């Protein structure tokens, strides 16, 4: 379970305990009741329920593993699974307590819960189907609202049954009896399933034939079994059939999603390799130059990231440093990142100042920017012979500077707007000077905004503490120390943003 946090692990442990406890209780109650004291058909039904619960736990385990490995959105399938699992448990208990006058209250409550599971399963099936199909049309949203109201009405009627017996009653002898109005209890589930299948049929051109078939099997298999056993008291197969069909549905639909994700993962791996090769990663950079030492790292939150760093010589004396962060995540941000990096590098190599370079890049990126992405940039040019530099901060994090024998401190000055936000803007240039022995640290917001499981931010205070823990460290060791501090602080929490850092030590001419 190394792919999930502590809270998720605790949830998994809790659900596992509940699932297995319910199975154990059914087996224990069956033993205490005594198989010889039950009709053979009762034993058959209870055994089928226990088997269905075992299958349900297997599906639950598979779902959790699936979520860990490929991030599939199985929330509504898990809701459906839980509803079906409770239905099986309630059905098993109902057969165990049936006919015992001393357990009439338990029998009544248990059967009420069992009756509630049918609309719950149908509504969860609707939610899962709409989520799987990715349907967000107006009519579907309206239908969802209507079904939500119908779901609460169906649940309310089952509570009313406790006082009216419109669906079932428990006689003085403790025996369960269906009322003539029992079929009404199936109306909501039937209409909900039909609504889901209509949506599947409408969207069938976007599905494979086997996917359509699986959805129809889920809807009709328990329905057919329910109709067949409607007039046969003592035979309860619908709950077990539903669990088996959930297993089929999970196996077919989510394995198909996993296959598609394998293809997507392959493309992401290729994109990640391309992005990695775009950024300079040969260190030490220009080892023959004794005026400076630098090191940079990027740790993307996903396979590909929107952060980037860059460094290159403009001529024999001037070094350019770039630290940037594209809004958004994933492939779109990565593409925007590579375009931005190329434009900035080209403009700087053409001899433009940092401010003028970003003005040109801003105009180019604003053209056709339908995705409305933007990029924050810290761009600087440093004369290695004098230590004099010019920097532009376009909406980026403040740089951190350490004077010789001093401590790392944030250098705050007025920002310019981020690049690709507004056409025609000008970027303010800021002059600075590095003295021999000074060090510079620049980073993206993924450093101070790294978050632990308690939703606490790493923050600039902890960042400065990590920098000043060993201020004389060379850039590579310094960045390793900061990353170790971030990892220790974050713990098992998931990384939500790219973490990119660049450190430079200036030795002087």
Automatic annotation (TrEMBL):
InterPro entries: Bact_Sigma-Reg, PPM-type-like_dom_sf, PPM-type_phosphatase-like_dom. It holds the Pfam family SpoIIE. The chain crosses the membrane at residues 12-31, 43-65, 77-97, 113-134, 146-170, 182-202, 209-231, 237-256. The keyword Hydrolase applies. GO terms for molecular function: phosphatase activity. Keywords: Hydrolase, Membrane, Transmembrane, Transmembrane helix. It comes from the Bacteria. Residues 289-506 form the PPM-type phosphatase domain. PANTHER family: STAGE II SPORULATION PROTEIN E, STAGE II SPORULATION PROTEIN E-RELATED. This is SpoIIE domain-containing protein. It comes from Butyrivibrio proteoclasticus (strain ATCC 51982 / DSM 14932 / B316).
């Amino acid at each position: 379970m190394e792919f999930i946090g502590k809270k998720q692990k605790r949830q998994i442990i809790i659900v596992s305990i509940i699932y297995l406890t319910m199975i154990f209780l059914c087996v224990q109650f069956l033993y205490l009741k005594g198989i010889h004291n039950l009709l053979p058909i009762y034993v058959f039904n209870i055994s089928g329920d226990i088997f269905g619960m075992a299958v349900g736990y297997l599906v639950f385990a598979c779902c959790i593993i699936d979520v860990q490995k490929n991030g599939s959105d199985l929330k509504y399938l898990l809701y459906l699974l839980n509803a079906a699992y409770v239905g099986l448990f309630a059905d098993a208990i109902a057969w165990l307590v049936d006919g015992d006058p001393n357990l009439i209250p338990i029998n009544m409550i248990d059967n009420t819960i069992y009756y509630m599971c049918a609309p719950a399963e149908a509504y969860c099936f609707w939610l899962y189907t709409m989520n799987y199909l990715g349907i967000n049309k107006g009519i579907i949203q309206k239908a969802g609202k209507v079904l939500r109201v119908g779901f609460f009405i169906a649940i309310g009627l089952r509570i009313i049954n406790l006082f009216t017996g419109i669906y079932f009653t428990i006689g003085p002898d403790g025996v369960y009896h269906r009322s003539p109005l029992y079929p009404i209890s199936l109306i909501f589930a039937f209409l909900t399933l039909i609504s889901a299948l209509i949506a599947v049929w409408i969207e069938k051109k976007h599905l494979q034939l086997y996917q359509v078939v699986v959805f129809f099997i889920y809807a009709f298999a328990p329905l057919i079994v329910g109709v067949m056993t409607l007039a046969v008291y003592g035979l309860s197969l619908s709950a077990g059939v539903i669990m088996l069909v959930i297993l089929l549905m999970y196996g077919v639909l989510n394995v198909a999603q996993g296959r598609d994700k394998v293809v997507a993962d392959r493309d992401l791996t290729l994109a990640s390799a391309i992005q990695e090769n775009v950024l300079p990663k040969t260190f030490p950079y220009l080892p023959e130059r004794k005026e400076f030492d630098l090191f940079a790292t990027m740790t993307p939150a996903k396979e590909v990231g929107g952060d980037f760093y860059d460094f290159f010589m403009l001529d024999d004396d001037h070094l350019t440093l770039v630290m940037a962060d594209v809004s958004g995540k994933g492939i779109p941000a990565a593409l925007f990142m590579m375009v931005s990096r190329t434009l900035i590098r080209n403009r700087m190599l053409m001899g433009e100042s940092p401010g003028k370079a970003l003005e040109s890049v801003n105009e180019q990126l604003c053209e056709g920017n339908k995705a409305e992405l933007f990029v924050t940039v810290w761009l600087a040019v440093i004369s290695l012979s004098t230590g004099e530099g010019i920097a532009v901060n376009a909406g980026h994090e403040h740089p951190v500077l350490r004077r010789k024998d001093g401590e790392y401190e944030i250098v705050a000055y007025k920002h310019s707007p981020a690049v690709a936000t507004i056409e025609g803007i000008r970027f303010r240039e800021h002059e600075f000077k590095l003295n021999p022995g000074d060090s510079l640290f620049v980073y993206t917001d993924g450093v101070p905004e790294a978050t632990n499981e308690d939703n606490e931010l790493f923050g600039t205070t902890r960042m400065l503490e990590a920098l000043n823990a060993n201020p004389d460290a060379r850039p590579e060791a310094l960045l390793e120390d900061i990353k170790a501090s971030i990892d220790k602080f974050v713990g098992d929490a998931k990384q939500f943003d790219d973490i990119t850092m660049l450190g430079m030590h200036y030795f002087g001419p």
